[in-house]
Amino acid sequence: MKRFLALLFLFTLFCQKSTTIKIGLVAPITGDVKTFGESVKNAFLLAIEEANNQGGILGKKITPVIADDKNDPTEAANAGSKLINQDRVKYIIGSVSSKSSIPLSEICQSANVLMITPTSTNPKVTVGEDGARKSFIFRACFIDPFQGKVAAKFALENLLAKKAAILYDVGNDYVKGLAEFFRDAFLKGGGVIQVYESYSKDDVDFSALLTKVKGDNPDILYLPDYYNKVGLIAKQARAMGIRSIFLGGDGWDSPDMVKIAGEAIDGGYFTNHYSPDDPRIEVQEWVSKYEKRYGVKPDALGTLAYDATNLLIYALRRANPEDVISVRDTLQNIKGYKSVSGEITLDEWGNPIKNAVILQYQGGRQVFITSVTPE
User: Fold this and answer.
1) 174/226 Cα distance (integer angstroms)
2) In terms of domains, do 249 and 156 share one?
3) Which domain holds residue 94?
């Protein structure tokens, strides 16, 4: 009888494996950027629900498996290890921040597990320390060299800025990288940077750094950090009488930005991946169904998670979903895939070639300013 039950259990496991495909998600469900994690999770689940309603992957139902990395590199590595070794996941969407996606990518690459980060823009996510491509790692967002270049070009040509100051988190790969790329592009374009200062993750008092900024009186104060830190800096800067125009990156995109910064962030510009005001039908249909489901408009993080999940599903349906290499090769060769955030063609490094947008905070809301095409 015991032998029969054991065989029945193994048969059940086999049937489950043969009729379902697991897709993992690693995201900051809790922690300092949990609003990012919430929108990413919502969009991920919505994409899977839609795919299952359309027959899944070649008739197999998709099962989501979610792990929380708390926006911490060690937690991200642990989450990836759990999904791979315990949950037997072959495909992972995640993570959100570059500092978490970099260690996650290393674990996935060593295990031949396919990973698509929806939002991590640092080049190191898909490229190793040796300069070689991590062949199982992809992303759905543009990368920081492009984002930094777009911001610098906008500052020089649209805002007519001649001098910029930069404050950045020295321990965050995303923030540090974006600061460097903006700096290099701004200087190359003829701008001047005399204040280039760093702070640490846990800092909350920026008065010493802002005193240097005030003394320099730059046209632009570039703040490439996430909304929670930028909100604090912006508020303290305005309280000190600094009138420089704030400029930043996609980490600004959160409903909590205005809650933290208040009116201080008004007039600030940032580079982003999409705008809900974009009239394209893909955007408006997406905004409508997300808002109907969750009661708010989707931010760029959620939108990219939706795009990344659908990009993976698109590849799975055109390959052998049991063969990761087959799926990887199919994904690498995708050209002109129409996503909400724009048409995607993946380059040799697993990065999409796509547009960026410039948004501005006006009266507590984000307003679309312009779209920028890669050169």
Assistant:
1) 9
2) yes
3) 2-142+280-354
Tell the residue number behind the tokens 């199982």, with chain if given: 136
18 pLDDT more than 60:
no
**Domain end point (choices 248, 272, 296):** 272
What span, in angstroms and rounded, lies between the C-alpha atoms of 257 and 289? 24
| Residues 16 and 98 occupy one common structural domain | yes
- How far apart CA 373 and CA 266 sit, in angstroms, is 26
Domain count of the fold of the chain: 2
Q: Which residues contact 243 (CB under 8 A, 6 or more apart)?
A: none
pLDDT digits (tens, 9 = 90+) for 233-267: 999 999 999 999 999 999 999 889 999 999 999 99
Q: Are 234 and 268 in contact (CB under 8 A)?
A: yes
Classify residue 370: in a domain, yes or no: no
- Condensed to tens digits (0 to 9), the pLDDT of residues 161-210 reads 999 999 999 999 899 999 999 999 999 999 999 999 999 999 999 999 99
Residue 14: in which H helix or E strand, if any?
Answer: helix 2-19
Query: What is the C-alpha separation between 239 and 115, in angstroms, rounded?
Result: 43
Co-location of 36 and 19 in the same domain:
yes
Bridging pattern class, strands 20-27 and 91-94: parallel
Query: At which of 247, 272, 297 does a domain end?
Result: 272
Query: Are 6 and 122 part of one and the same domain?
Result: yes
Domain match, 246 and 261 both? yes
Burial class of residue 293 in the structure, from the number of CB atoms within 10 Å of its CB (0-12 exposed, 13-18 middle, 19+ buried)? middle
- Report the chain's terminal Cα–Cα distance, integer Å: 69
Per the CB < 8 A criterion, the answer to whether 121 and 142 are in contact is: yes
Two structure tokens written together for 236:
């303290």
